[in-house]
Amino acid sequence: MGIEQFPEIETFQKLPRKVIVKGGSSGFDSKGRPELRGIVINNTGHPIRDIKVSLILFDENEIPILNKSTSPDPTGLPQGAIGSFTFILDDYQQEIKNYYLYANW
């Protein structure tokens, strides 16, 4: 995914000095499983590696019901680089709507 697909991000100087995880489109894959795609932006000021993106899914009462992790592509990002990730959930049948994303490395 290129930076031109996210017009609200003009320059990295305007972003906070942290790793930013942004969920993009949610829907269903070709097999009917719910999926969530998104990006990870490294704006920490130094390269990072072995990144994991975690998804916490909430029910209608804001109670966590599912926690999954995945590695973005690529798993190591230099300063200013963007990686992408996809969650495909086999054990959940609804569209992914109420969620929280975070990254650690």
Describe how the helices and strands are arranged:
Layout: E1 19-28, E2 34-42, E3 52-58, E4 64-70, E5 82-88, E6 99-104
Antiparallel strand pairs: 1-2, 2-5, 3-4, 3-6
Question: How would you portray this structure in words?
Answer:
Helix content is 0%, strand content 44%. It has strands at residues 19-28, 34-42, 52-58, 64-70, 82-88, 99-104. With 105 residues, it is mainly beta. Strands 1-2-5 form a three-stranded antiparallel beta sheet, with no helix packed on it. It has a three-stranded antiparallel beta sheet with strand order 4-3-6, with no helix packed on it. 17% of the residues are buried. It is built from no helices and six strands.
Helix/strand-derived class? mainly beta
Please outline the major beta sheet: 3 strands, antiparallel
Number of helices: 0
N-to-C order of helices and strands: EEEEEE
Q: What's the rounded overall pLDDT mean?
A: 88
Number of strands: 6
